[in-house]
Structure formats: C-alpha cells, structure tokens
Design brief:
Blueprint: E1 4-10, H1 17-25, E2 33-38, H2 45-51, E3 55-58, H3 63-73, E4 78-81, E5 86-87, H4 92-99, E6 105-115, H5 122-139, H6 141-144, E7 158-160, H7 161-166, H8 178-186, E8 191-202, H9 204-209, H10 211-226
Parallel strand pairs: 1-2, 1-4, 2-3, 6-8
Antiparallel strand pairs: 4-7, 5-8, 6-7
Amino acid sequence: MNKVSIVVPMLNEEAALPAIVSHLAALDPAPLEVVAVDGGSADASVAIARAAGWRVVETERGRGRQINAGVAAARGELVVVLHADTVPPADIVAVIATTLADPKTALAGFTPIIRGPKKTRWGTTAHNWAKTWYAPLLFRPHLFMRGCRLLFGDHAMFFRRHQFLAVGGCDPAARVMEEADLCIRLNRFGRVKLLARTVETSDRRIAEWGALKANWIYLKVGLLWAMGARERLHEHYPDVR
C-alpha cells in the first residue's frame, strides 16, 4: 500500500489547503508521500504544505507543467493527482492499489460530488458524470470503443508512474484540459475507468460564476479543445481561488 504518491498541484491555495492537509493526514492506509507542486504562489501555500510534512517542488505555473514535475519527483509506483480543493475518501490509497492491480486499467478516477458550504450542486455533478461518456463518444468514438473515457482534474485521476512517463506526461503548455489529453495518451496502455466511489470537490467556481455561466464555460472549453483550438484555451477559463 505504501507505493502510492499523492501529487497536489497548487497556486495560491492557502484557503483550501488546511482542509486537505487534515484529510490527508487521516488516510488509512497512509500514502508513501505527498508532493506539493507550486506554480509560484504569492500566499502561504508553500509554508502550509511544508508545515504539513509534504515535499514541495517548485516550477513554472501551468497545470500540465506542474503535474509533470510532480510525477517526475514522485517516488511511488502509483500516482494520484489531487486538486487542493478536493477531499478524497479515507481509503483512497487502498482503492488506487486495488484498481491498478488490474493490468487492463491504465488510468482511473473517482466520481466528483460538487459541494459548497451552503449546497450540493447536483445539476453540475450530474453533467460532469455524463460528459465522461458523451464527450469521448462524440469526439473520439474510436477511442471510446477501446475503453477511453474523459476524466478531469476533479476526478482525482491516478495511474502508473512509468506509463505516464512513457507517453510523455501531460502537455507542458496546457493550463486547462491537460487531463483529457492524458486520458487519450494513456489509453494506449488500457482502459480509462470512472469509479463509482466519490470525492468531494469545491463549488467555488459555480459560486463565483453562477450555475448557468459555469456550465457554459465548461461546455465551451470542452468544445474548443475537441476542435483543436488549444493555444489560448485558458483565457476562456478564468482563475478562481
């Protein structure tokens, strides 16, 4: 069980980090390590991560670049990428080890429940679940038939480190949708699987934008990515902390 590394990409996450620090400290069994990958935070994120006993890697901003740096630095055979605003189940390490014991599964992730202090966003939660299937079916049907599903950062995606490195990791220039690209790349090694187990992720974007605008942004970014318009994709996905 101690072959699982948790990689946490972060940028100005001091508000979210205390909760995830507490949850990761209570995992049973414990992971091999937690690697925080900072993209140039101007707040107390790095200090909080170091105080928690996490290993800190610093690199240039960009989720693709940060994930690559974290996986390269990881010591575990299995790696899960966990966003700072996402709370995993207490047995996440065991679930990862059991799932990847199947050599036919190359990448998997949890089903996210989008929740805030005031409400659970069931509509967006349901849409996120549905697009795991309909997005690859519409835009990559040949890969869908090979077991490819499209997962995203809120899914707490996990995989084998050596396979991640073999496909070149994430696009280092990607600041959004890097996870969808990774699903396609790793599908060469096996299926991409959505687990029935859940994680809870913050509704902070929906709270900031409103539900209709948030789902429009998600849809627009996904369509632009599918059509290959990726150079300025992050400009359509405003940063929220």
